[in-house]
From TrEMBL:
This is L-galactono-1,4-lactone dehydrogenase, mitochondrial. NCBIfam families: GLDHase. Pfam families: ALO (PF04030), FAD_binding_4 (PF01565). It comes from Solanum pennellii. InterPro entries: ALO_C, FAD-bd_PCMH, FAD-bd_PCMH-like_sf, FAD-bd_PCMH_sub1, FAD-bd_PCMH_sub2, FAD_lactone_oxidase-like, GL_DH, Oxid_FAD_bind_N. Its cofactor is FAD. The gene is LOC107002402. Residues 102-273 form the FAD-binding PCMH-type domain. The lineage of its organism: Eukaryota, Viridiplantae, Streptophyta, Embryophyta, Tracheophyta. Pathway: Cofactor biosynthesis; L-ascorbate biosynthesis.
Amino acid sequence: MLRSFTSKRSLQSLLHHHYRRCRQNPQFPIFNPRPFSSSPGQPSSDAELRKYIGYTLLLLGSAAATYYSFPFSENARDKKAQLFRYAPLPDDLHTVSNWSGTHEVRTRTFLQPESIEELEGIVEEANVRKHKIRPVGSGLSPNGIGLTRAGMVNLALMDKVLSVDEEKKRVTVQAGIRVQQLVDEIEEFGITLQNFASIREQQIGGIVQVGAHGTGARLPPIDEQVISMKLVTPAKGTIEISKEKDPELFYLARCGLGGLGVVAEVTLQCVERQELVEHTFLSNMKDIKKNHKKFLSENKHVKYLYIPYTDAVVVVTCNPMSKDKGPPKNKPKYTAEEALQHVRDLYLESLTKYRDSGSPDEPEIVELSFTELRDKLLAMDPLNKEHVIKVNKAEAEYWRKSEGYRVGWSDEILGFDCGGHQWVSETCFPAGTLSKPSMKDLEYIEELMQLIEKESVPAPAPIEQRWTACSKSRMSPAYSSADDDIFSWVGIIMYLPTMDARQRRQITEEFFHYRHMTQSQLWDQYSAFEHWAKIEVPKDKEELAALQARLKKKFPVDAYNQARKELDPNRILSNNMLEKLFPSSEAV
């Protein structure tokens, strides 16, 4: 069955919301009756005075009755930070937030079809009514690119593996299937996906449409694994596109940001399932420069994790396990408990300094993972540079004692614990070719580190650097017509380890200062463009115009908008973000 969430806020609720807002904001007047008289300068009669006093008392009594008839529930969202915004909400008002906790909308229309026929009906009806149904996946994009309060369609109930071609190692799936579910279901056929992003909860449709990526200079972004796909479009119904069938639209829509049609089915090129050997070790910038070309060319997967205000660089490589040699015999020098001890010590020391409430129970400390400990440490003073430096140094020590090898299947090994709520900005830029790296990727990092120290940014770790081969998808940040081009992806981060609204706002402001600093100093110099799932739309009109002009130089914006006009003339699949990034010529 089709799942639909629609509702209308009652008039009574709206009036209550208005009154609560009045109470909280003195500049928002409730009502100020002005006595009037028959002639200027004459005093009001006693009867008129009593009448208006009565009106005032009636208004205050009604307001008080309304207030106490609709108390806040214990779990009312953000009531501490923005009390005036929260009246009792309809039960069927659907709240959708992204994984990183930075974007949230409430919508009265959230549709979840269970078949392509239901999806086709939804799209057709929405197009007739000109009602928005923006495609949204698992909500993992840090910028909430799939969100809109006008209405959304989600394919979580369309999550089946439709067919497996064992000979060609290809699988056709419904686009709502999550990465981990897909990997688990095709395991019996001895195949898996070519590469993975940091987490496994993405829907296939979403991970493809935003141009997500893993790491490995020989491996392209995940959209390159798509052989064909079915799009349900508002104007042309369901169309199937591939390299052979409408290649121009295929290469445009493969990384189409959900704006050219709802991706309903996808055929993916898989690879043989392999065990990988992961090697993690601590290095420094001098040694990285010396060995960088070798690291890129000799490892199937490689990434660097830089720790600001230290010279530490965590190197993580992953390669297929040798059938002859088997797993490595090396034993780790330290246990997992010993690796965490320095971080735990800093946690206890910081508790005494910042909370003066004694130590927590020992079991609580023991149960915390490294990322949980880091979040708790940062939450104590997230914008204090000296405190952040202590946390970063503790992280470097943790990685030094975590050096060693790990063996597992690719879907187990290639993941990464990203931590909790956070702001992220990730850029992609050319880094030469695999045979001849330009070394611009390391120059970018060196300049970034210098900026952080010069501007005293309280930058936590890690700054993550990964690589991919190029993509042939026209809207991919890693697009290139040259087969041997490689691209570097660099992500900066600030965690939101607290639910205190004021503190989250301060961290947000600091993060956007940090991001703006990298944008103004590095992006143009290195031809860097943000990941589609991490780009943020500027509020300033001049900055927005500059971003639009910049995107037009890199991407085929006119072709993209023309395809949107043909496939979705009423823009029912769009949202505010897409309209601002890619304004139509008529709008301009």
